[in-house]
Specification:
This protein is mainly α. The protein has helices spanning 2-42, 44-47, 53-58, 72-103, 106-120, 124-143, 150-174, 178-186, 191-202, 204-219, 223-228, 246-253, 262-292, and strands spanning 62-63, 68-69. The protein has 13 helices and two strands, in the order αααββαααααααααα.
Length: 293
């Protein structure tokens, strides 16, 4: 009887192990195929159409029908909007995360944490629609501009990354050992001195990861900023100017691009560039975590 149970347990373990290995292999193969396909298609602009990488990255004109494939307006639009969102939403999200972890009453923190986690799951189209119906008219009335532009997109993205940054920042602060809090207070430091000079430096790696993942969320967003950015393929010269981003340009033009055309190849190159940026951010997260440990 005991031998039979042992055989059944060993058989179940073997089946579970085989399923896990199959799932892992399928995932790895899928990622490799996806990366390979995107790399193959994304480099056709340079290998088939013989466009230069310098022109693609730095030319201000995107008109594939006339042979001009400059993606600089979209690259700068993505960088400007993401930079604005992180400059506004990053510090605010970190501050709120520190507040919930160290200063808020336990009942308030316990009630707000599920609410913040729910905000992470709100579809981006909802944020975009709210920005289109509320924020754009407000900016239009206050500034006399069209309301579409970097300012609207930056504010919408700031709101979108807040739940991610807040949640990760709070978790980073909570894993700091209590002995550091108690030791600092025992030495006569105030609560604010303990937070600013002891706890925040101790949690700097986790806080940095929160900001970096917020950047990754912002730079990969498409639908929300497409609704409020203005989608103008020009280099913006101010926060109130309409612009376009890599993601929004891909969403708008990929459906109508002719198979094998220069336009399609340029859009695939933009997608490959976004992939490289996202991979760079992931490597940066791993570097920050490894250096902290």
């Amino acid at each position: 009887m005991i031998a039979g149970n042992a055989n059944n347990a060993h058989r179940n373990e073997s089946v579970a192990l085989a399923l896990l290995k199959s799932a892992s292999a399928f995932f790895i193969v899928s990622i490799v195929v996806l990366l390979g396909y995107l790399t193959f298609e994304g480099t056709k602009l340079f290998t088939v159409d013989h466009k230069s990488i310098f022109e693609f990255l730095f030319s201000p004109t995107f008109s594939p029908d006339t042979g001009q494939v400059g993606a600089a307006p979209f690259i700068l639009g993505s960088l400007f909007v993401t930079g604005f969102a992180i400059a506004v939403g990053g510090p605010f999200g970190l501050a709120v995360g520190v507040f919930f972890s160290e200063l808020a009453p336990p009942r308030v923190a316990a009630a707000m944490k599920p609410a913040i986690e729910v905000l992470v799951g709100i579809p981006s189209v909802v944020y975009g629609w709210l920005g289109l119906t509320l924020l754009v008219p407000l900016i239009r009335n206050m500034t006399g501009s069209t309301g579409f532009g970097l300012l609207s997109a930056g504010i919408v993205l700031s709101l979108m990354i807040l739940p991610t940054v807040i949640s990760l920042a709070e978790d980073a602060m909570r894993v700091v050992p209590n002995s550091l809090r108690e030791g600092s207070l025992a030495l006569g430091a105030t609560r604010w001195e303990t937070i600013s000079r002891v706890l925040v430096p101790a949690a700097r790696s986790g806080l940095a990861v929160a900001v970096i993942l917020g950047i990754a969320r912002a730079i990969g967003e498409a639908l929300a900023i497409q609704m409020v950015l203005g989608n103008s393929p020009t280099i913006p010269h101010g926060l109130l100017n309409a612009a376009s981003a890599l993601t929004s340009e891909i969403v708008m033009d990929m459906g109508g691009a002719i198979q094998g055309s220069v336009t399609q190849h340029a859009l695939f190159s933009m997608a490959l560039l976004l992939l490289l940026i996202a991979m760079s951010l992931i490597v940066l997260v791993k570097f920050v975590v490894r250096r902290a440990t």
